[in-house]
Amino acid sequence: MTDIHNIVVLTGAGISAESGIATFRGPGGLWEGHRVEDVCTPQALARDPELVHRFYDLRRVALGQVEPNAAHQALARLDAEWPGDLLIVTQNVDDLHERAGAKRLLHMHGELKSALCAACEHRQTWDGDMPPGTVCAACGTPAVRPDIVFFGEMPYAMDVIERAISRADLFVSIGTSGAVYPAAGFVQTAKYHGARTLELNLDRSEGSGWFHESRLGPAGTLVPEWVGQMLA
Ligand code: OAD
Predict the structure, then answer these.
(1) pLDDT grade, residue 1 (50/70/90)?
(2) From 72, 109, 193, 212, active-site residue
(3) Which pTM was predicted?
(4) Which of these, 69, 81, 103, 80, lies nearest to 174 by C-alpha position?
(5) Is the CB–ligand 1 distance for residue 14 below 6 Å?
(6) N or C, which terminus of the chain has less Cβ within 10 Å?
């Protein structure tokens, strides 16, 4: 591993599956029984704020019933012990990476435990329910919404992520279907800049052919093995 200094790790719903959080593209193709356009678009929020807020309220509550698994813990260990640069980019809106102890972490699709004011963009940590019409503590507008990147909105911190990927020696994708851009394109960017690319997933992702190597199996097994190799 002597030629590897900079690592970027991308995680998706599959890393939290063994903690008991459902992935998005399961057999039914629904998110907890909802169509994506009913709960994860700006139009849905405008049309039916009760439904959208309730959907995320339930998912926020559900975080209290789950714990980080061996894969989150292994990445936190890598974060603590890897001497080079590391950036963990998660598409997940749960808080399991940080509860496992990861610090070098970005939530590119937002966070369940954060609230965003649609009027002034003030953010605050959030626990419990978030009724529609909640007033922003900073500007007083009743425009507080879940701090989730909806379809059609720009993912967060793209400049930081793209800079890290352009400098990466190794790009590792864990538990993501490769169905949602821009994250699905990170492997191509990493490869273009000369990184080695590795996929750890239960089955082949849509972009599997872009990776130098694919290891197939549960993240709770594959990630601790890979981290062990990196830190050996
Ligand atoms: P998906 O549900 O699309 O894909 C989950 C992937 O994890 C699949 O490829 C599964 O095979 C794999 N998987 C399932 N269980 C696993 C396990 N135990 N170990 C390893 N892999 C496993 O979820 P994402 O790719 O994260 O966006 O979805 C990307 C984005 O789509 C999400 O961030 C979300 C959604 O729209 C927003 O919320 C904005």
Answers:
(1) low
(2) 109
(3) 0.96
(4) 69
(5) yes
(6) C
* Rounded CA separation 225/56 (Å): 33
Q: 78 CA to middle of ligand 1, Å?
A: 22
| pLDDT per position as a tens digit, 102-153 | 999 999 999 999 999 999 999 999 999 999 999 999 999 999 999 999 999 9
Domain ranges of the chain: 1-21+68-109+154-232, 23-65+115-148
Cα of 117 vs centre of ligand 1, distance in Å, is: 27
Q: How far is the CA of 164 from the centre of ligand 1 (A)?
A: 22
The burial of 19, by beta-carbon neighbours within 10 Å (0-12 exposed, 13-18 middle, 19 or more buried), is given as buried
Evaluate: CB of 12 within 6 angstroms of ligand 1. yes
Q: How many CB atoms lie within 10 A of CB 47?
A: 12
> Is ligand 1 within 6 A of the CB of residue 219?
yes
Atom of ligand 1 nearest to the CA of 183: 29
Mean pLDDT of 181-201: 98
For residue 39 and ligand 1, the question of a CB distance below 6 A is answered with no
User: With a 6 A CB cut-off, is 199 part of the ligand 1 pocket?
Assistant: no
The rounded distance, in Å, linking the Cα atoms of 112 and 90 is 13
Q: 1-21+68-109+154-232, what's its fold? A: Rossmann fold (3.40.50)
Token pair in block for residue 29: 């193709």
Name the CATH architecture for the domain at 23-65+115-148.
2-Layer Sandwich (3.30)
